Amino acid sequence: xxxxxxxxxxxxxxxxxxxxxxxxxxxxxxxxxxxxxxxxxxxxxxxxxxxxxxxxxxxxxxxxxxxxxxxxxxxxxxxxxxxxxxxxxxxxxxxxxxxxxxxxxxxxxxxxxxxxxxxxxxxxxxxxxxxxxxxxxxxxxxxxxxxxxxxxxxxxxxxxxxxxxxxxxxxxxxxxxxxxxxxxxx
Length: 186
What we know:
By secondary structure, the chain is of the alpha+beta class. It is 15% helix and 26% strand. It has a single domain, classed as Phosphatidylethanolamine-binding Protein. The protein has helices spanning 3-22, 162-169, and strands at 36-38, 63-66, 74-81, 89-97, 103-104, 119-120, 141-150, 173-183. The strands form two sheets. A five-stranded antiparallel β-sheet has the order 6-4-3-7-8, covered by helices on one side. The protein has a three-stranded antiparallel β-sheet with strand order 1-2-5, with no helix packed on it. The radius of gyration is 20 Å and the shape is globular. The termini are far apart.
């Protein structure tokens, strides 16, 4: 083999290896943003009241949504903070909500399974259910409440992580929506 062919082969092999190493292995959720999600506690892009913070009353905010497709078999909700110093911090994982659910009341029980049949996962505080904003002092952080309509009921036990939920949701998202609130430690 000539030196030129060896060089071409080496460069091509390196390119394949680098693209595999740099690939983002987390699943991406691609679906139209058709679900409208709101909260009586705060408007999109506005501050989340202190009673919803982890170091205050730690109450999950009341959420309402509309626009769930008729074909949905279940709903899932994730709340996370992409501005956390150690990377995205997960505050809430809830799934297998009945598709007819149009919202969640304030202060959802922090139990693995809810009366509706919905299940709650583990947040990054290593607790079941909602864990409110708890950013370090400094700039406000953004908290995204993301709702997903799924074409299936997921076969996941209570206590699932966000990563496992996202993996199970792959290819099952019919529609989604999000609400973003901010919080700043004083």
